[in-house]
Amino acid sequence: MNEQAIAERITVNPNVMMGKPTIRGLRITVEQILKALAAGIPIPELIEEYPELEAEDFRAIFLFTAELVGETKLYPVAV
Q1: Cβ atoms 8, 62 nearer than 8 A
Q2: Are 3 and 14 in contact (CB under 8 A)?
Q3: Hey, is 29 helix, strand or coil?
Q4: Which of 6, 7, 21 has the alpha carbon at shortest distance from 63?
Q5: Could you give the residue ranges of the DSSP H alpha helices within the chain?
Q6: Separation of alpha carbons 77 and 14, rounded Å
Q7: What is the distance between the alpha carbons of residues 70 and 66, in angstroms, rounded to a whole number?
Q8: Per residue in 24-37, pLDDT tens?
Q9: Residues 23 and 10 sit within 8 Å (Cβ to Cβ)
Q10: What are residue 76's phi and psi, to 5 degrees?
């Protein structure tokens, strides 16, 4: 999967979910899916709950998140 594929699957529209990144313009945010996964909900269960999701959407979410983390710089705070 490349950046073009991410752009097709992860969309940002100020009129949808207050501009948060969503899956293909649906009212399902990347944040929602990541929080559900972090809570231990397995992908098959999420697909059952959101049948409009596809396996490629999850790959796009992971790559999108990896790209964001890769661009993030954290600086230690002196105590």
Answers
A1: no
A2: no
A3: strand
A4: 6
A5: 3-9, 30-38, 43-49, 55-71
A6: 34
A7: 6
A8: 999 999 999 999 99
A9: yes
A10: -65, 145
- What fold, for 3-71? Arc Repressor Mutant, subunit A (1.10.10)
- Cβ 27 vs Cβ 16: under 8 Å: yes
H-helix or E-strand containing 67?
Answer: helix 55-71
Which residue type sits at 26?
Answer: L
Sign of CA dihedral 59, 56, 13, 51: negative
Tell me, what's the pLDDT at 1? 67
3-state secondary structure of 23: strand
Which run of H or E residues covers position 10?
A: strand 10-11
Residue 42 backbone dihedrals phi, psi, to 5 degrees: -75, 155
Of 60, 3, 1, residue with least CA distance to 29: 60
Is the whole model's pTM more than 0.70, yes or no? Answer: yes
